[in-house]
Amino acid sequence: MHTEQTPVVVENGLRAANTLPARYRDNSHGRHPALDLAAGTLWRMPGPFGIIRLLGPAYSLRCVVFHDISAMESPFTRGMRVTVPPDDFEAALKFLTQYYTPVRLQDVLDASERRGLPPRPVLVTFDDGYASMMEYAAPLCRKYGMPGILFLNAAFLDNEGLAPDNLVCYVANVLGMEAINAAARAIGNTDIPKLESLAEVFSRFFPSISLAERRAFLEALAHLGGINGCQLAGEAGLYLTRKQVGELAASDFEIGNHTYNHVHCRSLAPADFGQEIGRNKAELEALSGKKVRSFSLPYGSSADLTNDLVRNLQLSGHEAVFLSESVANPRRSDRVCFDRVSIHANKEDAFFFEIEVLPRLRAVRNRLSRGFGLVRMAGKDA
Ligand SMILES: [Zn+2]
Predict the structure, then answer these.
(1) What is residue 244's three-state secondary structure?
(2) Quick one: DSSP state of residue 156?
(3) Distance 362 CA to ligand 1 centre (A)
């Protein structure tokens, strides 16, 4: 499988924003007023899609990712910026169906140099299997004729357990960050600096610990909070049921793999792939009655797309991989790795900025940082 990794580390003013998983980055909410002004000005110009092409490179597949489509955040999601209100989601679907051509995974897999994709193609995806998919997202997608991919973790279907992120979020919201830090100390790793925010837990702490340490941390967290994860998950009803997954798979939603337990894949040893990737794929295929042929990386970072993972995905029949670094996908017919944009806007100029402008700027920045890296390496060799 050919994959292209987008460097996460950059050396300009966008660095701080890009070291966080896409969903924790500030997008439209609280964005700098100058960016909002630029978005409005660009959108009002004649032919904004033509103008923005000047930024190049050719931007092929637009992929977007959503998580929870709900009117309100809950203690399980507050602070993670995964929740989009149904009205904003509907505005996004209106924008996408008006200015883009919705495509399915099959269209993307079939696209070749000759046949290619239709003009301005867009692929809509959903991660984590929130129950709100059934209540809001799927009915709205049907209303607008929008197909999609659902990337699921089988461990949490039927609300049999709480996903790590929702447990951490719940404890942080109910008991505060001190409880998170106490659980982090309980795993006995003295190198862990004090965690100040949820973003630090997901973008720094989790990627730095082993799977065993992560399990110990989550157990300590539940113990300290007096939480029975299974019971709380059942009460919260955050996730889809297995039956609903079958129903969604029978409509216009393809089911994709998102690991069994929502783990950072850089923590996986080759021996873990069977449990996290193979088992998840097999369970989802049994539920959907269809082949699972795509994989989205939990937390969306290219740093998790290790060579071992790429090999395992290839051998286990995954044909496309999705990141969430919000970078434009260049026009390449042999691509099997696609980046996705996390959308939080609610009006046309802001959608345009999130989907068309910022991903192109990030692609330019990544190319420049690669160029600077090569110059530095050349300098060192000399
Ligand atoms: Zn996820």
Answers:
(1) helix
(2) G
(3) 22
CA 44 – ligand 1 centroid, Å:
35
Q: Which residues surround ligand 1, an ion (CB under 5 A)?
A: 127-128, 298
Residue 344 has which token pair? Answer: 């939080």
Best CA proximity match to 288, nearest among 240, 320, 219: 240
Rounded to whole angstroms, how far apart are CA atoms 353 and 106? 28
Distances (CA, A) of 81 to 72, 137, 206, 276: 11, 17, 18, 25
C-alpha dihedral sign at 51, 56, 62, 66 = negative
Helix (H, G, I), strand (E, B), or coil: what is residue 113? Answer: coil
Instruction: Please say whether the beta carbons of 280 and 151 come within 8 A.
Output: no
Instruction: Enumerate residues 6+ apart whose C-beta is below 8 A from 302.
Output: 5, 6, 7, 8, 323, 325
pTM recorded for the entire structure? 0.88
pLDDT at 11: 25
Strand partners, 148: 253
Q: How many other β-carbons are positioned within 10 Å of the β-carbon of residue 37?
A: 11
Cα-only R_g, the chain: 20
**What local confidence, expressed as pLDDT, does residue 28 receive?**
42
With tokens 């909070």, the residue in question is: 225
- Ligand 1 mean position to 117 CA, how many Å? 27
Q: How far, in Å, CA of 255 to CA of 4, rounded? A: 23
In angstroms, the CA 381 to CA 376 distance is: 9
Q: 259 alpha carbon to ligand 1 midpoint, in Å?
A: 9
Which helix (H) or strand (E) is 285 found in, with range? Answer: helix 279-288
Residue tagged 């292209």 (tokens): 4
* pLDDT under 70: residue ranges of the chain: 1-31, 57, 112-114, 333-334, 372-382
The type of residue at 236 is A
* Separation of CA 152 and ligand 1 centre (Å): 8
Q: What is the pLDDT of residues 92-116, one digit of tens each?
A: 999 999 999 999 999 999 886 567 8
Between CA 53 and CA 341, with CA 112 as vertex, the angle to 5 degrees is: 45
According to DSSP, the β-strands at 341-342 and 62-66 are: parallel
In order, the DSSP letters of 17-70 are HHTS-GGGS--STT--HHHHHHHHHHHHSSSHHHHHGGG-S-B--EEEEE-EE-
